[in-house]
């Protein structure tokens, strides 16, 4: 996919996404993905993923390529303030998979402050 002969997804792959060449694009975009379960145990315990994104569909596609397994479910939340181009790209990417969905409700904005640990409050007696 990439210019160096690897199966990695690149930004140029995203520019290929249009309704007119969707069948070719899906074949190209899913090359390098794992299309079968690796073990029976993996298949018996599918995982549901939720991804919040704001921009850079190529990066999201690379993340998906890294974590994708066919028995799992992937829900992608595209922030409302994402550009229309990002939303269209993600709709076209999702069309290539039976187990990847766009959330019907999107967040007002994407905020990335890192992980905040939960601290249990001590109850006074």
Structure explained in plain terms:
This protein has one domain (11-102). It is built from 5 helices and 3 strands; from the N terminus they run H-H-H-E-H-E-H-E. The protein has helices at residues 11-15, 22-29, 40-44, 57-67, 84-94; strands at 48-53, 73-78, 100-102. Helix 5 links the parallel strand 2 and strand 3 (100-102). A 3-stranded parallel sheet has the order 1-2-3, with helices on one face. The chain is 32% helix and 12% strand. The termini are far apart. The model is unreliable at 1-14 and 18-23 (pLDDT under 50). The longest helix is centred in the middle third of the chain and has 11 residues, at 57-67. By secondary structure, it is an alpha/beta fold. The protein is globular and about 40 Å long.
Order of helices and strands: HHHEHEHE
Order of neighbouring strands in the sheet with most strands: 1-2-3
Kindly, what is the distance between the CA atoms of the first and last residues, rounded to a whole number of angstroms? 63 Å
- Gyration radius (Cα, Å) is 17 Å
């Amino acid at each position: 996919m990439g210019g160096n002969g690897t199966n990695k997804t690149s930004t140029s792959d995203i520019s290929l996404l249009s309704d007119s060449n969707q069948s070719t694009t899906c074949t190209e975009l899913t090359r390098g993905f794992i299309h079968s379960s690796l073990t029976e145990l993996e298949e018996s315990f599918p995982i549901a993923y939720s991804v919040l994104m704001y921009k850079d569909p190529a990066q999201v596609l690379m993340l998906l390529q890294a974590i994708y397994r066919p028995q799992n479910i992937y829900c992608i939340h595209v922030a409302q303030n994402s550009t229309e181009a990002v939303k269209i790209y993600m709709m076209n990417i999702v069309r290539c998979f039976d187990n990847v969905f766009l959330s019907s409700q999107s967040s007002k904005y994407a905020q990335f402050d890192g992980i905040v640990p939960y601290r249990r409050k001590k109850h006074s007696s």
